[in-house]
Design goal:
The complex is a heterodimer of chains A (about 375) and B (about 500). Chain A has about 375 residues and is mainly alpha-helical. Chain A is built from 11 helices and 3 strands; from the N terminus they run H-H-H-H-H-H-H-H-H-H-E-E-H-E. Chain A starts with 13 loop residues before the first helix and ends with a strand. Among the domains of chain B are: about 190 residues, Alpha-lytic protease prodomain-like (Up-down Bundle), CATH 1.20.1510.10; about 80 residues, Alpha-Beta Plaits (2-Layer Sandwich). Chain B contains 14 helices and 5 strands. The radius of gyration of chain B is 34 Å and the shape is elongated. Classes of the chains: A mainly alpha (about 375), B mainly alpha (about 500). At the A-B interface, helix 3, helix 4, strand 1, strand 2 and helix 11 of A face helix 2, helix 3, helix 6, strand 3 and strand 4 of B. Chain A: This is Zinc transporter.
Chain lengths: ~375, ~500
């Protein structure tokens, strides 16, 4: 079709379409508070990583360069969380009949996996360094770790209403590890792996996924109509917890650096790394357990006690012979979906039974219920 | 059972890999080679991947429903595949970072012959693993089911399930219940079951296979990555041995390839290099300086380059697995099912007035689950309609369905597009999806709900509601006040006929 005028809507050069799409994404990100905060924090992290990279190139310090690469790597997890918070707001369509709300659970799970992977590699690196301690150049890393601490404090301030107690100090990610990054002449192929960095907070994203899972991922808020708010509350909580942990890790790195400078305890660094990686691993377990439960279509834990009672009430309805095959599962936080089959007498009022059943389960919190009525023949 | 060979293979590979890991650690301590130690950690990650797959297989064998996991554990396979894919991706990123570091600071391989030996052994182990898993994973591109796995896998599982419910009539066969025998006694049910009896066994294995194929693909990819890594190690060490001319100990030598950060050597290097500039580049003994130059520099860059190529290959092969398992976990409609067309055909079934809240998702492998609300005329004809619907779904390959009937209260021009039993309006944010039609639906649904209300509801509301039920189809937004009731207490009265 030929365009009738230059402003004809049907004719759009491809490039403009891409721009439109990207600007659409930006608008969507900026629309919601959580994703906005996440986005800015991601930008902050990224810029910090860039600065570190440039500084490392300029001062020719391999440790700083590798550290900045690791920070970029960590930013991907934060990016995943951001993407999830945007994706989960998309509308349902033919392929995704439930919409995309599960993306958050999946993102939390994947972030937890990345965290475990990171912990594993920090541990391995700690072991390697313990067996063969390299030279340490810590004079350059102290200012970097202090800068990282400052970045984290900003993060704490921004994501303030997040948290309640969950294992802190776990997420140091081997900050102490980073102290060895400045080392040289160390024929170590894994140098600067896992999480050893110039002692600053990377892996916010880790914490993000990590905290993300602290409770069940919230899809919707209790108190408002906008579906996004509840989820943002959840993500914020996660990020906050993670930043707190990162801050503590930073402080730990600084202390460890001081220890090494004053008392020359070289072994402190690998031991710290190993401890920190164990802590990370342990703290990720609740997150993983929860997301795995949701992804495995497990009965929602919060309904564990309410459901048998509901079954009894339903079975006491007039005309109901039996309740079979109940399946209740979590789509995302607070959204429970259930199916069950009722065997009813031929003369029972099916409509009444249906609505009663729905009411019973609505009180329990299951709002999407599919009740199949099987009429027994006498 | 079909899963036994899987488990056996996994265990075999696991023990081999673990043994090799121990060997590598020991060798690395003996030769004090750090590269070997880091390689051993790669092996350890392989072990972990195998453990994950094994755990997934073990769990998925428990297909019986439990109290907490009413669907059984069959989804564990998909999770195992996802975990493996994510680990692989993370590993790839790590390798890229390492490779970049190596680019900026290349260093020679120490003790290349040992590396060749161990690398070759590792390659053997990995090739063995590839053979073990290849036959299984090769067939499975995607889920290899045409969506028509007949027989009722869930059926069989339902039979095996120990429910806490009283045995009741049909021990949980869905299709069988309605399609055959709702009218007969339990004996009839078991008869029907036995008729299908042979089929479920094979189908069960099929389902299991296609689900576990995803898992095995994850393992296969992991082993493939490891094999490629071993190949690279061996190739690199070989080239290094034959092409590289190292600095001999004892002779003054300069290594132009590694720019070491040692400040004390820097001066010397620069000076020497400067002196050597005038001579031929590749001479081993330039001029009369008596210096040897360490071998061609490109050798040192071979390792990272090969690594990056390997990473590209791995990422390319891992991405489909990642995408597939992620899509299943996101409750996507399985790809072989065209939702739109299915919806239309469903609406064409005799006796079906409307279909809404149709959801189809994949539990794992070829187990597909569907739920829907079907609007029909009245309860008397309902069972026939239900039979037809179940048959329809069976033809599509969906055997676990839950159909909720909704009966129109007003005949004639009721278009029946509104859900009669949806939640109240304030539930809109808590429903799973479709905020758009939630508004309309909840309005209509609110009345339907309230229509069964107790005497607490004022009479005026009832009138308004019944009236609006008739009007609802004409898409008017009636004066249905969203009856913000407190939690409904005892619902005693029956549903109000709208023939008020």
């Amino acid at each position: 079709m030929l365009p009738l005028s230059i402003k004809d809507d049907e004719y759009k050069p491809a490039k403009l379409n891409l721009l439109v799409k990207i600007s659409g994404w930006f608008r969507s990100i900026l629309a919601d508070k959580t994703s906005r905060n996440l986005f800015f924090f991601l930008c902050l992290n990224l810029s910090f990583a860039f600065v570190e990279l440039l500084y490392g190139i300029w001062s020719n310090s391999l440790g700083l360069i590798s550290d900045s690469f690791h920070m970029f790597f960590d930013c991907t997890a934060l990016l995943a969380g951001l993407a999830a918070s945007v994706i989960s707001r998309w509308r349902s369509n033919d392929s995704f009949s439930y919409g995309y709300v599960r993306a958050e659970v999946l993102a939390g799970f994947v972030n937890g996996l990345f965290l475990i992977f990171t912990a594993f590699f920090i541990f391995s690196e700690g072991v390697e360094r313990a067996l063969e301690p390299p030279d340490v150049h810590h004079e350059r890393l102290l200012p970097v770790s202090i800068a990282g601490l400052l970045v984290n404090l900003v993060g704490i301030f921004v994501f303030q209403h997040g948290g309640h107690g969950h294992s802190h100090g776990g997420e140091g990610h081997g900050h102490s590890h980073s102290l060895f990054n400045g080392s040289v002449g160390h024929g170590h192929s894994h140098g600067g792996h896992g999480h050893s960095h110039g002692g600053h907070e990377h892996g916010h994203e880790h914490g993000h996924g990590h905290g993300h899972s602290h409770e069940e991922p919230h899809c919707h808020d209790e108190h408002s109509y906008s579906p996004a708010k509840g989820s943002s509350k959840q993500i914020l909580q996660g990020v906050f917890l993670h930043i707190v942990a990162d801050t503590l890790g930073s402080i730990g790195v600084i202390i460890s650096a001081i220890l090494m400078q004053k008392y020359d305890l070289m072994i402190a660094d690998p031991i710290c790394s190993m401890l920190i990686s164990i802590l990370i691993g342990v703290s990720v377990v609740p997150l993983l357990r929860e997301s795995i439960g949701i992804l495995m279509q497990r009965t929602p834990p919060s309904l564990d006690h309410a459901l048998p009672e509901c079954y009894q009430r339903v079975q006491q309805l007039q005309g109901v012979y039996n309740l079979q095959e109940p399946h209740f599962w979590t789509l995302c936080t607070d959204v429970y979906i259930g199916t069950l089959k009722l065997l009813v007498a031929p003369d029972a009022d099916a409509r009444w039974i249906l609505s009663q059943t729905h009411n019973i389960f609505t009180q329990a919190g299951v709002r999407q219920l599919y009740v199949q009525i099987d009429i027994a023949a006498m | 059972m079909a899963c036994e060979p899987n488990r056996a293979r996994l265990l075999c590979m696991l023990s081999l890999t673990f043994g090799f890991f121990i060997v590598e650690v020991v060798v690395s301590r003996i030769t004090a080679s750090l590269a070997m130690l880091s390689d051993s950690f790669h092996m350890l990650s392989d072990v972990i991947a195998l453990v994950v797959a094994l755990v997934a297989v073990r769990f998925a064998e428990k297909t019986q429903a439990t109290n907490k996991n009413t669907f059984g554990w069959i989804r564990a396979e998909v999770m195992g595949a996802l975990v493996n894919a994510v680990f692989l991706t993370a590993l790839c990123f790590t390798i890229i970072l390492e490779a970049i570091e190596r680019f900026t600071e290349p260093h020679e391989i120490e003790k290349p012959r040992v590396v060749i030996g161990v690398g070759a052994a590792g390659l053997l182990v990995n090739l063995l693993g590839l053979c073990l898993f290849h036959g299984h994973a090769g067939g499975g591109h995607g889920h290899s089911h045409g969506g028509h796995s007949h027989g009722n896998k869930k059926n069989k599982r339902g039979k095996m399930s120990k429910f806490e419910k009283p045995p009741g009539s049909s021990s949980g066969e869905e299709t069988n219940n309605l399609v055959g025998n709702h009218s007969t006694s339990p004996n009839g049910d078991s008869l029907e079951v036995q008729m299908n009896g042979n089929a479920p066994y094979e189908e069960l294995e099929n389902a299991h296979d296609s689900a576990s194929q995803l898992n095995m693909r994850g393992v296969f990819l992991h082993v493939l990555g490891d094999a490629l890594g071993s190949v690279i190690v061996v190739v690199n060490a070989l080239i290094f041995t034959f092409v590289w001319q190292p600095c001999e100990a004892g002779a003054p030598c300069v290594n132009p390839c590694t720019n070491s950060h040692c400040t004390d050597h820097q001066h010397v290097n620069h000076t020497l290099l400067g002196l050597m500039e005038g001579d031929e580049p590749n001479a081993t003994d330039p001029g009369g300086l008596g210096l040897t130059r360490a071998g061609p520099c490109w050798v040192l860059y071979l390792d990272p380059t090969l690594c990056i190529i390997m990473v590209c290959i791995l990422l390319y092969t891992t991405y489909p697995l990642l995408k597939e398992s992620a899509l299943i976990l996101l409750q996507t409609v399985p790809k072989q099912i065209d939702m739109h067309r299915l919806n239309e055909r469903l609406r064409g079934v005799d006796g079906v007035l409307a279909v809404h809240e149709l959801h189809i998702w994949q539990l794992a492998g070829s187990r597909i689950i569907a739920t829907a609300h079907i609007k029909c005329h009245d309860p008397a004809t309902y069972m026939d309609v239900a039979k037809r619907i179940k048959g329809f779904f069976h033809d599509e390959g969906i055997h676990a369905t839950t159909i909720q009937p909704e009966f129109v209260t007003v005949n004639s021009e009721s278009r029946g597009s509104l859900c009669e039993l949806s939640c109240r309006t304030q539930c809109a944010p808590k429903l799973c999806c479709g905020a758009v039609d939630a508004g309309k639906q909840t309005a209509a649904g609110a009345e339907g709900r309230v229509a069964a209300a107790t005497a607490a509801v004022p009479a005026t509301t009832l009138e308004v509601i019944s009236e609006s039920q008739e009007n609802a189809n004409k898409d008017q937004m009636p004066n249905v006040q969203v009856v913000v009731r407190s939690e409904p207490q005892v619902m005693v009265t029956r549903e109000v006929e709208s023939s008020l």
